[in-house]
Amino acid sequence: MLVRTLFAEEHEAFRATVRRFIDAEIAPHHARWEHDGQVPRSLWAQAGATGLLGTSIPQDYGGTGADELFGFVVVEELARAGITGPGFAVHNEMVMPYINAFGSEEQKRRWLPAMVRGEVIGALGLTEPQAGSDLKGIRTRAVRDGDHYVIDGQKTFISNGQLCDVIVLACRTDPDAAAAAGGLSLFIVEADRPGFVRGRRLEKLGLKAQDTSELFFEGVRVPAANLLGPEHGGFKLLMKNLAQERLTQAVRSAAATEAMLQWTIDHALQRKMFGQTLADFQNTQFKLAEMKTEVTIGRVFTDHCIRQFLDRTLDGTDAAMAKLWLSELHGRVADQCLQLFGGWGYMWEYPIARAYADARITRIAGGSIEVMKQIIGRSLLAEAQRKAR
Description:
Blueprint: H1 9-26, H2 30-36, H3 41-50, H4 69-80, H5 88-102, H6 105-116, E1 122-125, E2 141-145, E3 148-159, E4 166-172, E5 184-190, E6 196-201, E7 212-223, E8 227-228, H7 234-270, E9 272-273, E10 276-277, H8 282-310, H9 316-341, H10 351-359, H11 369-388
Parallel strand pairs: 1-4
Antiparallel strand pairs: 2-3, 3-7, 4-5, 5-8, 6-7, 9-10
Helix pairs in contact: 1-3, 1-4, 4-7, 5-6, 5-7, 7-8, 7-9, 8-9, 9-10, 9-11
């Protein structure tokens, strides 16, 4: 039996708080939110009051200054419960880290305390119709006009898009660098600015309670003070934070695969067929044994990457390997577990059916697995070339 040594007593106490919050405030309502296509704003305020948002944000900006493990606890417990509606991970592990790491003092004081309280919801505006994993293809433009920038463009597949109050937005600020990374900049864009238009809430295969939207920017004027980091320096900032984002997805997949496996073990022990339980069949035992082995391997590697992240030694290659392995494992386990549930597994009322639909996006979001392989492959070649010199 694998014993995890990452988390201390205070982390486990917080884990119990997160579980109670999920059991009381999320799980009873999640099916209705799947029908609605989003969670209510009130949930964010509740989560903020309970301490689930911005756990690692410094005390000067409204947080507790705790280590990042507390944020990973939130990610794990939502995944373990099969909860996909609240976009807390985007808010906590993607948007706030950009503002905290690269924002000015004024930006941090203006936005972070309200985000920690759940009064302001964050979204990350990267993906466009023609630019997904390839961020160099971003076309949304921000043109300097005096002490403002004027933004025109479109984003799509944006989590928290219907509810967000602020977007960390990637724009092209150098028209002469249309195909290069050097022309990108990041901005903090308020959702109440004239010219900002929310598109439709997108109908998805899974993650049905998580609002995902198109966003449009039509002559949106933002103060130059809303520039996040240096002008034309956005691509470098994105590269610095992508490792954390991909690790977050690996953490979610690791917890989800463990949960699906446990649901299936419990089902196999109860399901009667041909005078015995499903668990009594050798084929079932072999399938469970294979999945248990792979899930354990995934957990060990994910925890290794978390340790590297805490030590500030996690690089893009290891994060890509974690994303690659865990997202592919996520899909395999979902498929094999549903098969062991038989026809019941195909019924939406069963958690495994929803988990199966939710699992498919993990091989796409945050950089497709093909891009992860490219990152890893290039790293291998670069290392070989260095050794050959």
